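Justification of computing resources. Each target in the renewal requires a structure prediction run like the one illustrated here; the chain below, 444 residues long, is used simply to show the kind of job we budget for.
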Amino acid sequence: MSSQTTENSALLHPSHDEENATLKPTLSYKSSGIIRGTLTILFVGGLIALVGFRHILADKLSPLFGLPTDPLEAAIAILDKAPVIDGHIDLPILTREKFANNASAIDLTTRMPAHVDIPRLRQGRVGGFFWSVYMPCPKPEEDSKDFLDATWSVRDTLEQIDIAKILIDKYPETFQFAAGTSDIRSAIKNGRIASLLGVEGAHQIGNSLAVLRQYHALGVRYMTLTHTCHNAFADSCGYLPGIIPLHNGLSPFGRTLIREMNRLGVLIDLSHTSDATATEVLKLSKAPVIWSHSSARAVHDVPRNVPDDVLRLVGTGQGQTDAVVMINFSPFFVADPGEANVGTVADHVEHVAKVAGKKHVGLGSDYDGIGDVPIGLEDVSKYPALIAELYRRGWNKYDLAALTGGNLLRVFEAAEKVSKQLQTKQEPAYDLYEKRKDISHAEL
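Resulting structure tokens:
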């Protein structure tokens, strides 16, 4: 008998005697019935468990299969991997006003008077923020229309840089000074809060590009072109409607400032600027830019917010410039009186994302610099509430990680690359403010 015939015979006749051949199929039939019954019971039981305890099971199994179903728990899970990098926190000016910049009188491990302290930063899953070394615009009677009268802005700014650095050093287990994207990543990896410096207004450099360079040497990595006042470089949007333009955008000296900021790697911050200034900068800058703390004018119509025609200039397409608009939480900028809450702030996030794209929106709360706060976003511990709201609206974990810090890191890193390239072929700008009379103007 051939091997093929033997094989077929064995498949057809598993036993050599008729009794066993009859008995075995009978046993297999009974066994399979038991197995089917058992599987049915297990399936029905599993289905009941999934239906009756779906939220509990989903959350327990989320490390294997995805995020928790509860939006707040999902937000915390996302923030544990992609913490908030806030574009604008005013802790230094609070320390000046409340404590006269006396670091020995400040305990950030306990509850501070306003919105920011270490316990609440940790609760809010903050991985980094720009410490705004802000000083206000000079009073009109303290400065001339040509910005030539001496003010204390540079001195005061240095004092703000000083107190920020002292507080960062005072809590080495919490804060890590950062002067670039690699420092930010290192700090977060080490479980620290990356601490960067931003100057809020070019009036703070005293009409001097040399002062800007020295701020950069001290670690300043962005400068807002204006605050609520015009300066020698650019026009402000003011605070309320009706401010009269001075330069209709940038002055000639302002264009030089943009080139020098690009060369240095100081991010250009367009918050507080006029629409004309923002539009001109987006066309002129070789590096990406930021709005460190601004919202969407189409959602709430105030001059400080970014209009859609400017938002449409943001992007990576032809005629666009890469940027991130970091949403301000100040109630005055996000909603009518009494209506600011987590949802209205989320509306601003979504509008910028709709017009410019989700790659171009971030968070710039303005905590410690605002007197009022939205309901549900009372302090830095509440960032998860905003992330949860956006998660409910369908934002996925990748979009949310970009919002919380990824978009800022992208534009910051691109600005660093531009700076590196420019420094190989571009000298520092030695231009002087044309209206200065205290120094001779050499021909350039």
